[in-house]
Amino acid sequence: MKPDHQIIDDLHRRMVRIRFFEEAAGRLFEANKIPGFVHLYVGQEAVAAGVCVALRADDQISSTHRGHGHLVAKGGDLDKMMAELMGKATGYCQGKGGSMHICDLELNMLGANGIVGGGLPIAVGAGFANKYRGNDTVSVVFFGDGTTNIGAFHEAANMAAALKLPVLFVCENNEYAEYTARSRTMAIDDVVERAAAYGMPGRVVDGMNAIEVYEATRQALETIRAGEGPTFLECKTYRYFNHHGIQTLGMKYRSDDEVAEWRERDAIASLEHRMIADGLASDADIAATRTAVLAEVDEAIEFAEASPLPDPADLLANVYTEAGE
Amino acid sequence: MSERQTTYLHAFTEGLQQVMQADPDVFVAGEDVGRTGGVFHSFDGLVDEFGERRMVDTPISEQAIIGLGIGAAVVGLRPVVDLMFMDFVLVAMDQIANQAAKLKYMFGGNATLPLTITTMGGAGLSAGAQHSQSLEAMLCHVPGLKVVMPSNAHDLKGLTIASVRDDNPTIIVLHKRLLGNKGIVSEDAYEIPIGSAAVTRVGRDVTLIAYSRMAIEALAAAEQLEGEGIDCEVIDLRTVSPVDIATVLASVRKTNRVVVVHEAVRSGGLGAELAAQVQEHAFDYLDAPVARVGAPFAPVPFSPALESAYVPDAETIAVQIRETLDRPRLGPAG
User: Fold this and answer.
1) Which residues make Cβ contacts (< 8 Å) with residue A299, sequence separation at least 6?
2) In the predicted model, what is the mean pLDDT of residues A237-266?
3) What is the pLDDT of residue A251?
């Protein structure tokens, strides 16, 4: 089934929003305006956008250390995101979380996570709560190919399948676990094979194609909402930048040619090409979207830069929930 | 409502039952907690009353069990998750210490985690080195967690109810050698505040600070020494994080001598933290070094002959108290 015009526009806008936010975050990081680490999502936009366009507002998502794209795709506020990356008091976490702990519970985004695999059991818990309450909300968890080598993944996948919980496992296979190729860390070709071990349906999706990710997610959500238990999508995608920071080329662990090949299949460029070919948008329409998103990102940077730093007097706030809070 | 004698084990089950009756958002998940009622029978009968929807048998997956509780708590339920043996805390430590304890803080206060973890600690059943540990010092070292270790049926019931109602990740450590101990317990759904110690014996010569089963042994030592003219004050901490330091200091200022007792290994244990806090806040009141009684720096042995030599008891505590009191009281010169 071909998604309608509105869906395609939505996929496009969300991907552009991720790309421009992440490119800006990379530049600001290089300029030492963002402390700590940034693990950028550039290249993988089709996955977050494709999944999140298919979701309802009440569906939860759980994310990873490479989590900005997921929150942007769920509708995250770029001002609060950029402020958090800069460690400002106006950020999503008031400067206490940073890039790896960004979250928005009002959007049902249950948090990025600094521990590989750490978010999986938590996402299963949210899925449990949905079933417990008898609603048809789905808990979606994003994770990388490398995560499927850690115990928490296997415990979470088995628990979700055994208890028939409404959880969608979205593996973003970007071919590298930090700096080590997937082929060197697992003896299977498709990560999705692991889903079968838990009795979970799974399929491979072109993670550079937002429409395909959207369609696969929509179909998976139907069976999950019908109470048939979890599903697994392996989205084959690629990380343009380094594991951490923005360096793209000249790396020992992968060839420049490989990066160039994946960039040829860029998810945003190919969707734009298709939109024009199908008469869904003109060059001017696409330029207008890009200009509008760039302005939004610029405003977020201005907001973040103008925002105050956290007050050290608040250092101990929120370690515990106080009675009556 | 009336009071009656009941066991430590039943006090726990009854506390849980009463919070579950009052709050439909409370459920229990863990290995064998449902149909079996728990390997120690601590959840006996609950599945009959609440069904398998609220008494959830899980795979042997400690990380996923804790994660199940965290995720459900973040979206608004009030989960109780069970780890069976305290040793298994180590299997789930990422979810406990990196996730549950920190989410609220890392999210700038945007998450609330009304999560309770229940488990069985302590030695004395020849369960060996991987089923007998007292690992509370590791948990107390993590900001964001609360840890309760009740020594008797009355406290256990009240602290179980308080823990489940608390909006923070709270770990209730039962002691497996106390399960059959009887005490007077009210039938009411009462709470004992988390973070409040109990003075279980008033005395003037020395303060014994203990918790969990060692609070019982400390009382036994105190009774034994009464015949020797030594008058011990005994404080049962009940909660080990946060510690009720005010009650401890008030007692120290009166008795001027302190012996801390725990079943965990002495080195790096809670006794070291208490000794440090006592000297920080009441150094001028001390007439003797703060003494610590704990297990030696070795894993818990299996054979009853070795295990009984390993775990402190009233006798070893009494030996330490006599030594602490033998030091001369420093009076005014002349």
Assistant:
1) A78, A79
2) 91
3) 85
List residues bridging with A180 in a β-sheet.
Answer: A177
Beta carbons of A129 and B56 less than 8 Å apart: no
Cβ–Cβ of B167/A321 closer than 8 Å? Answer: yes
- Domains of chain A plus CATH, in order, are 5-301 (3.40.50.970)
pLDDT value, residue B1:
61
Q: What superfamily would CATH give domain B3-186?
A: Thiamin diphosphate (ThDP)-binding fold, Pyr/PP domains (3.40.50.970)
Question: Does domain B198-326 correspond to CATH entry 3.40.50.920?
Answer: yes
On the question of pLDDT at B328 being above 50, the answer is no
- Close Cβ partners of A226 (under 8 Å, ≥ 6 residues apart): none
* CA distances for A158 relative to A136, A146, A192, A194, B65, angstroms: 20, 18, 14, 11, 11
Distance from CA of B115 to the nearest CA of A (A): 12
For the whole prediction, is pTM greater than 0.90? yes
Q: Hey, of B20, B68, B83, which one would you mutate to test binding to chain A, going by the most A CBs within 10 A of its CB?
A: B68
Coil, strand or helix at B143: coil
Q: What is the mean pLDDT of residues A125-146?
A: 98
The whole-number pLDDT of residue A249 equals: 82
Over range A8-37, report the average pLDDT: 97
Residues of chain B with CATH 3.40.50.970: 3-186
**Res. A3: pLDDT tops 70:** yes
Residue A257's Cβ-side half-sphere holds a number of Cα atoms within 13 Å equal to 0
Structure tokens at A221: 């959500």
* pLDDT over 70, % of chain A: 100
- Residues on chain B bordering chain A, Cβ-to-Cβ distance under 8 angstroms: 27, 29, 53, 56, 58-59, 61-77, 79, 94-95, 98-99, 103-113, 143-144, 146, 167-168
Give me the helix-helix angle, A119-133 and A151-162, nearest 10°.
Answer: 10
ipTM of the complex: 0.96
Cβ–Cβ under 8 Å, residues B293 and B260: yes
Closest CA to B102 of B65, B70, B63: B70
What is the model's pLDDT at position A324?
Answer: 79
* Core vs surface per residue A300-315: b (16+ CB within 10 A) or e: bbebbeebeebeeeee
